[in-house]
Amino acid sequence: MKKNIYQYAVIALSFAFVLISCDNYLDVQPKGVRLLETVMDHDQWLNYTYLEASYAREINLLADNVDDPTIQNLTTSGSTNRVYSWQQQFSDDVKDSPLIWANHYQCIYYFNTVLQEIDDATEGREEEKASLKAEALLGRAFEYLYLANLYGKQYDSNTANEDLAVPFVTSNDLEDNVPDRSTVQEIYDYIIADITAAIPDLPEDNSQNRFRGSVAAAYSILARTYLYMGDYTKAAQNAQLALDNGPNTILDYSTMDNESDIPELLRRADAIYARFSTNHYQEETPTIAFLQSFDSTDLRLKFYYNNLGGYSFTTRGITRYSPGGVSDGNTFANWGTTVAEMRLILAEAAVRANELERACDELDSLRKKRFPKFIVDNTVTPPDTTFRYEKFESTNQEEVLQKVLAERTFEFPYCGMRFFDMKRLDAEGRMPEVNRYDGEGNVIATLSPGSNKYTLQIPIQVLYFNPDWPQNPTDE
């Protein structure tokens, strides 16, 4: 019964469509005939739009900052409501494509195709082949970072060699058997090793296409990797290397009239490694508590949230988050890595080392570009010009840490990152109970501290073909 990882993760419903929808050099050919032949073919393969927008938007629905006041019966609900309420399985039909899981393994298939075939490609220099191989290693590593944090327990150096994560697949042969689930430690080791191996051959500059790999992109993903591992020293080292080798600019919202001044992600100056979600036009509904945690002068509210009213936020579902900006433009948030993320990693590493002044300085480098410098009141004579932004400073370590963590939620509210922060904070005993409520305010689902729901169940569509795999623990 054991089948290749792509059997239901990718191939069953989506792969045939993907091949048909690609450019003609990806057209389906008879079995045994190469789909890609030249170095340029492989380069264009890495430009495929699916790789730009492959991250499941549903990851946002796992987080504590989303609300759905219209939700009804969970027992008959669709897959998105199942995700929203942290149910064990997001579909009970083994013929379905497994939500979230499929997205990542489909991308892994694309990257593995380059890694397996680029050495035999024609019409290109060896340096070009090495560069494309490095980009594929980097892209694959980023996919596994998501998978490890979704389907494996939070990294703990004491148990990571025993905790199971996901299979580490390196083949692109659809008939190969899938390997067993690797441990969390093994997946992290693979990620770090592959990115480290890629760095010498990666392009130094991806400013013409932020969706492609670069040296800075590699260091930025290593920084996020070490952050999730709780190794704050190495996280900070790699965050600084990312800034030293690539973009080091935070877009200044205080100089912009509105969010339409934010450039498209393809060449955005603050993007290090760009990615979209699968549905990057989908609005999200913030919780009242999340909205009320904002400073009302925060320009991120003005740029990305509609129906702000008087900033009191007392009615559920009125205010919505628009990932393309309130004008429905092309200012989509980056699901990849950014300069702002590196600054916040540096801030968190500093505060955890009790270097509070440095942490506040790193915070300030971002926050001062997210608030108007002045508010001018022309209703009085003479006009009252009031300075609005103040640098956050504190000598209390816990207070500074909470400020850094809050800033992460404001800067990356619906970029697939909040659930991973919740997961690592839960492992530290820092996450409170999270509840879901129906339209009348009744609790319909709960994510408790220490819950096994922080680790997703392996989809039944995958276990159907791999019945010998252990399933992740549940709370029941």
Q: Over all CA atoms, what is the radius of gyration?
A: 23 Å
Helix content: 25-40%
Give the count of helical stretches.
16
How does the major sheet shape up? 2 strands, antiparallel
Could you characterize what this model shows?
With 476 residues, the chain is mainly alpha-helical. It has 16 helices and 10 strands. The strands form 5 sheets. A two-stranded antiparallel sheet has the order 1-2. A two-stranded antiparallel ribbon has the order 3-6. It has a two-stranded antiparallel sheet with strand order 4-5. Strand 9 (434-437) and strand 10 (443-447) form a beta hairpin.
Summarize the structure.
This protein has 476 residues and is mainly alpha-helical. It has helices at 6-21, 39-45, 49-52, 79-84, 101-117, 126-151, 184-198, 215-229, 232-245, 288-292, 299-304, 339-352, 356-367, 397-411, 418-427, 460-463, and strands at 164-167, 181-183, 271-273, 305-306, 320-321, 337-338, 374-377, 384-387, 434-437, 443-447. A hairpin with a 6-residue loop joins strand 7 and strand 8.
Keywords:
single chain, 10 strands, 476 residues, two-stranded antiparallel sheet, 7% strand, two-stranded antiparallel ribbon, globular, mainly alpha
Topology:
Blueprint: H1 6-21, H2 39-45, H3 49-52, H4 79-84, H5 101-117, H6 126-151, E1 164-167, E2 181-183, H7 184-198, H8 215-229, H9 232-245, E3 271-273, H10 288-292, H11 299-304, E4 305-306, E5 320-321, E6 337-338, H12 339-352, H13 356-367, E7 374-377, E8 384-387, H14 397-411, H15 418-427, E9 434-437, E10 443-447, H16 460-463
Antiparallel strand pairs: 1-2, 3-6, 4-5, 7-8, 9-10
Helix pairs in contact: 1-5, 5-6, 6-7, 6-8, 7-8, 8-9, 9-12, 12-13, 12-14, 13-14
